[in-house]
Every structure is written in C-alpha cells, then in structure tokens.
Amino acid sequence: MDCREAKQLNHVFLDKDIDQLSNQRLQQHLLNCEECRIHLQQLQKVIAYVESASHIQAPSDFTARVMAQLPPVAKRKSFGNWMRRHPFVTAAAVFFVLMTGSLFTSWIDRDNTLQITSSNMDKLKIDKERNVVVVPAGTTLTGDLIVRNGSVEVEGEVKGNVVAIDGRVFLASTAQVAGDTESIEMIFDWVWYEMKNIGNDLLPLTH
Description:
Largest sheet: 4 strands, mixed
Oligomer: single chain
Protein name: Sigma-W anti-sigma factor RsiW
Number of strands: 11
Domain Putative zinc-finger: 3-37
Number of helices: 7
InterPro entries: Znf_put
Distance between the termini: 14 Å
Strand content: 15-25%
Pfam families: zf-HC2
Keywords: Membrane, Transmembrane, Transmembrane helix
C-alpha cells in the first residue's frame, strides 16, 4: 500500500466504513509510515474540534466591527484592485479574521463545566472534587483524549494524543502516550492550538 491509498483509507476508517481486510492493510502501513500516522492523528484532532465547537458563533457585532476596519471610501477602488490581484491572500486573511474572532468568543463565552472527548469513556475515572480526569494504571485508551476545563492524569496507556484545555496534563512514571501531550491554559495558546489543527488539515501533505 502506498501513502496515497493510505490517506484515502484514513477517511474511510474515520467514517467507520472500512472493511476488515482494508483495515488490516492500513494498520500495517501506519506502523511503518510516520507521515500517514501523523496525517490520521491530525484528522482525528479536526473531528474532535468540530464536535466540541459546534456551538461557536460569531459575536452579534462582529460584522459591524469588521466593516469599521475597512479602508475609507476614497481608497475603496485601489483596495478592491489589490484584493482582485491577490485573491488567495484576501481569502486567507478573511478566514483568519473570522476564525480568530469566533475562537476568542468561544473562549470567553465557554461553558466552564468539565467536558471530555474520548471513545473510551467507560475506562476513565473522573475526580469531580479536583476536576481531574484519570487514565488508571493498567488501562489502555485507543484514540485521542481531550479534556476541557480540567486536568488529565495519565497512569496507563493512551494510543493517541492527550490534550487539556484550560488545564494541565500530568504523566505518571507508568504512563505511555503514543501521540502528543498539550496543556493549554492561556487564550492565545488555545487559539493557536485550534488554528494549527485546522491549518494542518487544510494544507496539502506531500510525500
């Protein structure tokens, strides 16, 4: 299996429509190809973000504030010509402004209750008094673990990434994490984390 076929199967795998034989071939390829393995992890991060950020809305005065930042009427013609000459830069700038505004708003207006994204919820222990999610020793989680408004203590094994948003990740001596660990405690760290995940998936990966 080459990388092009593997990346196509990544999407089928995430949609849970992959057959057993194709899944075996894909998993074998992922064991030997770091690039495809990272690509799958990035797709999983984007899915987790979309699922957890479905409530995000732009502020009610967002349009008015953007319009207020546009050039004066006297410069409108030259500004429009510049935008037509640089469509990609213009589109990227608009996307960045919209996404950053939405992300800042979602951080400020976020629900402060503990939120957990994992495909193995039954294996986790939740300490509500300390607002901590624990991966017990001897337990193996498959896929990413994302916790919002709380911290994570990993004593067992996580076959994916571990992310604590507005919290911290603590690893015990027995912990094993196959992916990355990230503690996001400041708004700018969080905005960068979300933009990085979206950008990684949008930019084409070259082999």
